[in-house]
């Protein structure tokens, strides 16, 4: 808390006539200014979590027309009320007026302390959204059980694909020094209902399992616990060799199994509520069970057995593709995992990225969703914007997350959405999860820009309820972040809602993907074709030549469409029934292909690139319209970042068009500006020091 208070006090000089300066530290929560009238709050019970809940209400509520009573449903005075809490499970909350000991009060309750805390945050959110507390009657239970941030943080403080500064975790000074920021971080997560944190990178160092690092992780777990948050660790599959001195990491080897069991017991002695392991195996050079000719299920089940006595779980990633496999990369995860359905232990979830390639600005939903009915499928989303302009470009990802959650797998008829696969409704799974690759670092504003905070927010809200609307979430966030001026809120929401499509337009419209430059993934590189592995090259994905462009994933090509349920596969097999947003993902088409608009594919593509750049210009103009209505500090950083984004949108467009023209020999349609430089110039750009490349 201390840091949060200090953060708000650290005001930079506000320009005259503007709202107070704000460095973004407070996120969507209140600044530390003392409330006008501290509401009358009674806490029944004395757990640390209940105390935090009461403190939040005291700090965040401007006033309350009723005294507030906080406590678990079975607490004295509340138990007799017979409140309808049966369907709310362990984490659902209820907030409503009731008469307690003859006096009217607003009750904030649930079946556990954490539920009460979530209820307190819900009441705060409702008031900030304009609700009258006297008439508040809300209840909600999370639809997804494990709502987890994945930190790709390395033990040396760097963050793989992190664009908001160094890792929050200072492993070097842990466990002794517990930076007050750790609690502020946990508080922000709890305000959204996030209940788990994987502390270390999926490209894991075995050192995170060493005794001293377990002690460090335990110190973080202690800070997070009252906020309802468990810690998890990414496990390096070969740790029994590197740490244990064994000769093998074969998951069927008794010594290896015993090593993991002993290691798990050790972790649970230090962290009794440890959540479990996240594993990236046999992917991009990471070790795994395939090294021993064992399956992913063998590997996952070994770890699952080690944590099962402690109620731990294993999140086993399906992000696999092998250089030895010449098949379409988009097919490989399904090919490898689908036959394993039914072979995983009960406490394993298979964690699947939203799309089959890799967090591109747009991807069709991953064919594994709906294809493994016996296995809990955990959705992995990338909150950090590796492929959408790092921290600088404004891209609200709520719409991307919503698009995948709403996608209909047709696995069990119409309405078999990814959301229903993920929340377990489709197959009746109780173990469910959603993971977000965090965009959080040590920057004062946590996420590298004000609007990036909205992506953390949207992930948390959607993990609680995957059916929420991206627009409503944007509005909630904007109102809590910028205050109640309708012009500011409407402007922020309008900018957010079109921002992701703008990125799609200027980086890769109509289903194109993976066109970025090598390694750092910043900026365009559609020409790159010399990397060692074929599927690392953008040319592998777009397959453009003089005659046409796109990846044929129908029967005449890789037949990836056959991995979808028949109704979806049929739709995608024909370019005329494939959504144009995904056209070139599934089809290789001539440049003169007739689009629904009547334009040729080439003319339409150019129009998208132009629209992307124009949308960013509009976003700039809209933001200029709220100058003076948003504090100067956040306003000007956003304005400057939008200017960078505009310049770079133009760069993406120009470089891409220059390249496509060199391939297809066509001219630009009338009215479309020529690229600023020639292709050689774009090809010559180098960014060896771009952030987020890890080690
Ligand atoms: C890719 C990232 C890489 C990650 C990998 C993963 O470029 O840094 O390690 O995903 O998810 O998008 O494992």
Record the SSE blueprint.
Elements: H1 2-9, E1 41-44, H2 48-60, E2 68-72, E3 93-100, E4 103-110, H3 113-128, E5 138-140, E6 146-150, H4 180-192, E7 196-198, H5 211-224, E8 230-234, H6 239-242, H7 254-270, E9 276-279, H8 296-307, E10 313-317, H9 329-337, E11 348-353, E12 377-382, H10 398-406, H11 418-422, E13 433-437, H12 450-464, H13 470-482, H14 486-507, H15 538-542, E14 548-549, H16 566-573, H17 583-586, E15 589-590, H18 601-624, H19 632-664, H20 679-684
Parallel strand pairs: 1-2, 2-4, 6-7, 6-13, 7-8, 8-9, 9-10, 10-11, 11-12, 12-13
Antiparallel strand pairs: 3-4, 3-5, 14-15
Helix pairs in contact: 2-3, 7-8, 10-13, 12-13, 13-14, 14-18, 18-19
The structure holds beta-D-glucopyranuronic acid.
Residues 160-161, 202-203, 280, 319, 358-359, 386 line the site of beta-D-glucopyranuronic acid.
Uncertain runs with pLDDT below 50, 5 residues or more? 1-18
- Per CATH, the architecture of the largest domain is Alpha-Beta Barrel
CATH topology of the largest domain: TIM Barrel
Based on CA atoms alone, the radius of gyration comes out at 25 Å
- Helix share bin: 25-40%
Q: How many β-strands, per DSSP?
A: 15
Strand content: 5-15%
């Amino acid at each position: 808390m201390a840091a949060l208070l200090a953060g708000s006090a650290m005001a930079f000089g506000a320009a005259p006539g503007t709202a107070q300066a704000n460095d973004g530290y407070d996120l969507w929560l209140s600044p530390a200014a003392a409330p006008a009238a501290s509401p009358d709050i009674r806490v029944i019970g004395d757990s640390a979590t209940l105390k935090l809940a009461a403190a939040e209400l005291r700090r965040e509520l401007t006033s309350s027309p009723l005294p507030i009573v906080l406590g678990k449903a079975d607490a004295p005075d509340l138990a007799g009320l017979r409140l309808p809490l049966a369907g709310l499970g362990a984490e659902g909350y209820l907030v409503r007026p009731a008469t307690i000991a003859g006096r009217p009060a607003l009750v904030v309750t649930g079946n556990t302390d954490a539920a009460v805390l979530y209820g307190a945050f819900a009441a705060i959110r409702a008031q900030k959204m304009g609700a009258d507390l006297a008439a508040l009657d809300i209840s909600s239970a999370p639809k997804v059980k494990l709502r987890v941030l994945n930190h790709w943080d390395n033990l040396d403080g760097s963050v793989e694909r992190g664009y908001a500064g160094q890792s929050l975790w200072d492993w070097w000074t842990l466990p002794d020094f517990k930076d007050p920021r750790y609690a502020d971080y946990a508080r922000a997560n709890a305000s959204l209902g996030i209940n788990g944190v994987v502390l270390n990178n999926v490209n894991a160092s075995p050192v995170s399992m060493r005794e001293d690092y377990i002690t460090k992780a335990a110190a973080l777990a202690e800070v997070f616990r009252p906020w309802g948050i468990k810690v998890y660790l990414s496990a390096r599959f070969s740790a029994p060799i590197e740490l244990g001195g064994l000769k093998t990491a074969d998951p069927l080897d008794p010594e290896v199994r015993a090593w993991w069991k002993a290691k798990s017991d050790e972790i649970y002695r230090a962290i009794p509520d440890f959540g479990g392991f996240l594993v990236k195996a046999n992917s991009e050079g990471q070790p795994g069970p395939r090294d021993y000719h064992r399956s992913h299920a063998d590997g996952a089940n070994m770890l699952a057995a080690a944590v099962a006595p402690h109620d731990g779980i294993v999140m086993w990633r399906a992000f696999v593709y092998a250089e030895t496999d010449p098949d379409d990369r988009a097919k490989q995860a399904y090919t490898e995992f689908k036959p394993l359905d039914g072979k995983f232990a009960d406490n394993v979830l298979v964690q699947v990225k939203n799309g089959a390639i890799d967090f591109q600005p747009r991807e069709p939903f991953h064919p594994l969703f709906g294809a493994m009915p016996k296995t809990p499928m955990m959705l992995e989303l990338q909150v950090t914007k590796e492929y959408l302009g790092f921290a600088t470009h404004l891209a609200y990802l709520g719409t991307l997350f919503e698009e995948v959650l709403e996608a209909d797998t047709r696995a069990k008829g119409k309405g078999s959405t990814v959301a229903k696969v993920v929340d377990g409704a489709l197959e009746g799974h109780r173990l469910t999860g959603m993971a977000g690759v965090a965009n959080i670092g040590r920057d004062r504003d946590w996420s590298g820009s004000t609007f990036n905070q909205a992506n953390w927010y949207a992930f948390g809200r959607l993990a609680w309820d995957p059916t929420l609307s991206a627009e409503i979430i944007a509005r909630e966030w904007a109102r809590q972040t910028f205050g109640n001026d309708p012009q500011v809120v409407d402007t922020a929401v309008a900018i957010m809602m079109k921002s992701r499509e703008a990125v799609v337009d200027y980086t890769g419209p109509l289903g194109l993907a993976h066109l970025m430059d090598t390694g750092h993934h910043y900026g365009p590189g559609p020409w790159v074709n010399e990397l060692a592995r074929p599927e690392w090259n953008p040319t592998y994905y777009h397959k453009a030549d003089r005659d046409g462009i796109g990846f044929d994933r129908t029967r005449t090509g890789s037949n990836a469409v056959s991995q979808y349920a028949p109704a979806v596969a049929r739709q995608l097999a024909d370019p005329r029934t494939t959504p144009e947003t995904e056209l070139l993902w599934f089809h290789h088409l001539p440049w003169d292909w007739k689009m629904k608009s009547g334009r040729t594919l080439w003319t339409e593509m150019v129009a998208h690139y132009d629209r992307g750049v124009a949308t960013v210009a509009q976003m700039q103009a809209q933001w200029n319209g709220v100058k003076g209505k948003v504090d100067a500090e956040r306003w000007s950083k956003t304005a400057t970042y939008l200017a960078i984004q505009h310049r770079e949108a133009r760069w993406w467009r120009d470089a891409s068009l220059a390249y496509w023209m060199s391939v297809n020999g066509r001219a630009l349609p009338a009215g479309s500006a020529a690229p600023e430089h020639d292709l050689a110039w774009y090809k010559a750009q180098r960014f060896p020091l771009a952030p987020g490349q890890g080690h």
